[in-house]
Structure formats: C-alpha cells, structure tokens
Amino acid sequence: MNCLRETRNQKFVEIENILKILKVGEKQMSKTYKIALIAGDGTGPEVVAEGIKALETAAQKHNFKLEFIKYDLGGARYLKSGEILPDSIMAEFKKADAMFLGAIGHPDVKPGILEKGILLRLRFELDQYINLRPVKLYPNVESPLKDKKPADIDMVIVRENTEGIYIGAGGFLRKNTAQEVATQESINTRFGVERCVRYAYEFTKKRAKNNKLTLCGKTNVLTFASDLWQRVFNIVHKEYAGIETNYVNVDAVCMWLVKNPEWFDVIVTDNLFGDIITDLAAMLQGGIGVAAGGNINPEGVSMFEPMGGSAPKYTGQNIINPIAAINAASMLLDNVGEPKAAQDIENAIIKSLETGKIKSMSAGKMGLTTTQVGDLVASYI
Ligand code: IPM
Ligand code: MG
After folding, report:
1. Are 280 and 354 contained in the same domain?
2. Whose CA is closest to 125, among 94, 95, 97?
3. Rounded CA gap, 299 and 282, in Å?
4. Which terminus of the chain has fewer CB atoms gathered within 10 Å of its CB, N or C?
5. Gyration radius (Cα) of the chain, Å
6. Which residues constitute the domain of residue 177?
7. Is residue 378 part of a domain?
8. pLDDT given at position 30
9. Could you tell me if the CB of 119 is within 6 A of ligand 1?
10. Is the minimum distance from the CB of 72 to ligand 1 under 6 angstroms?
11. Is pLDDT above 70 for 330?
C-alpha cells in the first residue's frame, strides 16, 4: 500500500516538473496578437500605416508579435460591389484579439449607410459597449483655449456605445406628407446603464488621478432616461467609497469644458451626449489630428480608431496627421495586455511633439509629411 502511494507521489512530482518546463517555454515564446485591420476610405490607409509602424516597433522592443489581417471595407467596396459588411467577415472579427480602424466615409455614399452598416453594426454586434475617449493636451500642441496648459486638459470620457438614441428605435408615419410624423426613441436599459457606469467607476479608480467621476445627463428634462442613469450612478457609488462624484447637465458640461476643463477627471454619459461632448473635447486637445478612441467590449473584441474622418480631399498627399492613429495604436496595445508597450508609444508621441518639429496638428501644416511624423514617433519608441 505504502509502496503504491510512493510511486503515485513520484508520478505527481514528475508531472509537475513537466508542467513547469512547459510554463517556462510558454513565457519565453513570444505572444502573437491577431489584429483585424480596416484601413478604410480616404486617408484611412495613410494614417493606419503609421499606426502599424508604431505597433511593429513596440512589438519588437517588447518581444511580442502582431498578425495583421486586412479587411477591405468602406465606401469604395460598397460602390464597387454593393457589399457593406458581409456576415462572414463579421464572424472573423469575433476571433481577433483587437481591431484597428482607419476611417470609413465616402463623398459618393449617402450619409448613414456606412455609419450604420459598418461602424454602428460593429459596435452593436461585437457588444463594444464602451466608447473610451482620453482627452489630453500634449506639449507644443495648440489648444483653442487660451491660457490652458497640458496639466489643465487631461480627462477621459466614458460614453455608452450600444444604446440610447443610437439603437434605431422609431420610424415614420405618413412619410412625405404634410402630416408626417418622425420618431426616434432613446432606449436605456438598466443592464446597459449599469455596466457602463460600473466601467466608469472602475476606470476612475484605476486611473487614480483625482478619483473624481462626473455624470453627464439632462435630469431637468429627460426625467425618465436621465433619472435611470442618476439612480444607477448613485447605487453603484456605494461600492466606490474612494471616488468623489458629481452630476452636471450636458449643456453645462459643454460650458465648463471650455471654461474650466481642469475640473474634469472622468466623465460618464450616454451615447448621444457622449458623441457631442467628445467632439468638443477633441478640439480642446488640439483637434481630430490627435484624438483617438476605443470601442471597447471588456469581455470581448475591441476596436480602436482615430477620431478624424476619411478626409477625402487630403487623400494620397501624405499630409494628414497620423498622431491620432498612433494614439489609437497605443490604446489597442493597452487593451490586449501590453501596457508597457502602449505607454512607450504614448511617450514617443510626447517626445516627438517636444522636439518642436511638428509645427501644427492640421493636415498640410505639420511641416513634415505623414510618413515623417510616423518615422519620428517610431524613432522614440
Ligand atoms: C463617433 C462618430 C460616429 C458616432 C458616427 C460616424 C456614426 O461621430 O464615433 O463619434 O456618431 O458615434
Ligand atoms: Mg462623434
């Protein structure tokens, strides 16, 4: 009996040793992340190329690998074949580690088709329920706010990304008649609001800047939707004793963002208000040449993008600012679990700006080409 136990123990030790060896091997073998790439329309491919440059440089430095899988989607494909987003591609996105998007939008495609058919469909079907928008004024970047310094403009906006007025509830009655009725409803579920609010509290805690979370709504008019948001916000607050909270109506948020941006640390808000205040905030940080965002499913596949559109008039000229796309690349790496590499990219952007070689954030006024800005950033990674 004893003898039997001893041989069994011996076997256990052997198996454990083998497992240890396997684990060490796994650590030494570099990880590969599968990145779905939608360069998209207009200047999308040009800025994405510089994002990839930064990603590859950071990957080499931090010993991981990236596998880019290209998907040809956007206005050009739609005009050629009538295809917007085939289901087979949708299924492949679900298997990626992250997605990197350039820009979608074509002057010959009616507004709404690509936005709804690609961008919103991706957000909804991949359940990317958070739209994360860091707003940071970098050194040597001109803000339209006079007297505001980088220390004054440093906040993050957490926007709900799968509900609200974006859901597409509503319709027409008696369309094209004098009695026409058009409705567009904002749908807010307890589940959807709560997961967004929780994400915002958790994010504020991890960010550990001022530990302050602002709820942006419109409780004085939207006495149903904003009421739900406020109640959920207050209930979840009980689990976050260290976080200071306040509530500001969306119109007042616009006012304070311009007057006293330094008051904000993290702002949480619904889909439509988030859409509006993030564009305002993007301008404070120097414009869409710098601003990046993430469409995040904390339990699934997330997508990162520069905030600017496809800017068709600048296409092919090598003059568009790639910093927003490089910033998006940094957010992507943070999301897949490479925070050091992500930080390296952001630090490289800051160092590049500190050189003073990039004269402006606007297309055609940078004093450098798109490629040269990408090279400069890569050189500091
Ligand atoms: C954004 C954009 C989109 C939105 C458009 C392109 C549908 O403005 O990501 O903020 O409204 O969400
Ligand atoms: Mg927007």
Report:
1. no
2. 94
3. 27
4. N
5. 23
6. 144-157+172-284
7. yes
8. 86
9. yes
10. no
11. yes
- Mutate which of 275, 302, 305 for ligand 1? The one with the most ligand atoms within 8 Å of its CB, which is 275
Query: What average pLDDT is seen over the chain?
Result: 95
Q: Is 105 left (phi over 0), alpha (psi -120 to 50) or beta?
A: left
CA distance 315 to 39: 13
Residue 120's CATH number: 3.40.718.10
Over residues 4-16, the pLDDT tens digits come to 555 556 766 676 6
Residues 206 and 239 in one domain: yes
Q: How distant is the alpha carbon of residue 194 from its chain centre?
A: 20
Q: Tell which of 240, 255, 284 closes a domain.
A: 284
CA distance 83 to 109: 12
CB 246, CB 234: distance < 8 Å: no
Q: How far apart are CA 305 and CA 352, in angstroms?
A: 21
Whether 121 is in the pocket of ligand 1, judged by its Cβ within 6 Å, is no
Neighbours of 245 (CB within 10 A): 17
> Quick check: 103 and 309 in contact, CB under 8 A?
yes
Q: Which of 166, 199, 201, 314 is catalytic?
A: 166
- Provide the CB-side half-sphere exposure for 107 (13 A, CA): 7
* Each residue's pLDDT tens digit, 49-65: 999 999 999 999 999 99
Q: Please name which of 153, 72, 102, 79 lies closest in space to residue 308, comparing C-alpha atoms.
A: 102
Strands 154-160 and 130-136: antiparallel
Catalytic option among 218, 270, 334, 344: 218
Token pair recorded at residue 31 = 């990880």
Query: Are 266 and 302 contained in the same domain?
Result: no
Question: Amino acid letter at 138?
Answer: Y
Q: Is 97 in contact with 34 (CB distance < 8 Å)? A: yes
17 domain-assigned: no
Q: Which residue has the higher pLDDT, 14 or 41?
A: 41
In angstroms, the CA 140 to CA 149 distance is 10
Within this chain, do residues 353 and 369 fall inside the same structural domain, yes or no?
yes
- Domain termination residue (choose one: 256, 284, 312): 284
